[in-house]
Amino acid sequence: MAAADDDNPDPARKPSRLREWVTLILMTGLVFFGIRWFLFEPFRIPSESMLPTLEVGDMVVVSKFSYGYSDFSIDIDLPFMPDTRLLGAKPRRGDIAVFRHPRDDKNLIKRIIGLPGDTVQMIDGQLWLNGEPMPQRLLGAATNTSLSVDKAQLFSERLVDRRGAALAEYQVINFADTVFDNTGRYTVPAETYFSLGDNRDNSSDSRSNAELGVVHQRFLIGRAEAVLFSLNVQAHPTDGYFWAYWNPFRWDRFIKLI
Q1: In what order do the strands lie in the sheet with 119-123?
Q2: Where are the alpha helices (DSSP H) in the chain?
Q3: Rounded distance, CA 116 to CA 191, Å?
Q4: Active-site pick, 73, 110, 195, 203
Q5: Does the pLDDT of residue 1 top 70, yes or no?
Q6: Residue 129 β-bridge partners
Q7: 143's torsion region: left (phi>0), alpha (psi -120 to 50) or beta?
Q8: Is the link from the previous residue into 42 a cis peptide, with omega within 30 of 0?
Q9: Hey, what long-range contacts does 204-211 have (CB within 8 A, 24 or more apart)?
Q10: Which of 23, 84, 237, 244 is deepest in the core (most CB within 10 A)?
């Protein structure tokens, strides 16, 4: 039996260089979009509604598998997708969630406060959950907000269950008496979630049915996990825009867990 001539392979069986590149590009695209559609997706923070937790210019990574999948989470209009979602767990109180606005083609990010069946109310700027006030502690003046810095106050807020066990703890900003500092007692309907911005007086959230209202589970996209990096898109008045141009990153906000 004659040995195969490795020095003179059959030209017809030699793979095309163009085909190799096309295959590589297609495989890379499938991996990229597979990760983006089903695993993780970056989102940019465009407003101050989640200060002080998230700043304008933050780029956050969202785990899309945390809450399962709907046509909004994979960003493809699939009419056969059920409202109950596929796979995944339900949000927890205190989660920071990204979701699609139910009446507008834009994504929002807020903190999940009320689950189905919970009661939520604001009394004098303090959050009440299931008939109990959520503990707050004054930390001082809030300085990283466009609200008047001589009046904006920074608080530590803690979500607790009926037994007093801590569910989540984070910081919120309160500015002054506003129409949403005192609300009626709202019962969260089935399959929906009550959300609030951490910047309580500068957030359109579930306190207003005209602005947002409660969020149906179908519109959930995923849970915010970390700040990848942060762009200094809003220079502080003391810094000036020239400094922001030459120093575009907030270096202390790289790979920051939420």
Answers
A1: 132-133, 126-129, 119-123, 186-187
A2: 17-38, 240-246
A3: 6
A4: 110
A5: no
A6: 120, 132
A7: alpha
A8: no
A9: 204/49, 205/49, 205/110, 206/110, 206/113, 206/114, 206/120, 207/122, 207/180, 207/183, 208/180
A10: 244
Candidates 198, 209, 205, 207; CA nearest to 175 is 198
From the centroid of its chain, how far is CA 225? 8
Secondary structure (DSSP) of 83-94: TT-BSS----TT
Helix (H, G, I), strand (E, B) or coil at 130: coil
Q: Which amino acid is at 107?
A: N
Alpha carbon distances (Å) from 65 to 38, 74, 193: 6, 10, 18
90 counts as catalytic: no
**Cβ 130 vs Cβ 119: under 8 Å:** yes
pLDDT at 237 over 50: no
Is 106 a residue of the active site?
Answer: no
Report residue 192 as tokens. Answer: 């929906």
Dist. CA 202–CA 173, nearest whole Å: 9
Domains and CATH numbers, the chain: 40-257 (2.10.109.10)
Structure tokens at 35: 């990760």
75-105 tens-digit pLDDT: 665 565 666 677 778 999 999 999 999 888 8
Say how far apart CA 156 and CA 153 lie, in whole Å: 10
Residues 124-158: tens digit of each pLDDT: 999 999 999 999 999 998 877 766 556 788 999 99
**pLDDT at position 166, please?**
87
When mean pLDDT is compared across 41-45, 130-134, 180-184, 247-251, the lowest value belongs to 247-251
CA distances from 248 to 23, 75, 226, 233, 251 (A): 37, 30, 19, 7, 9
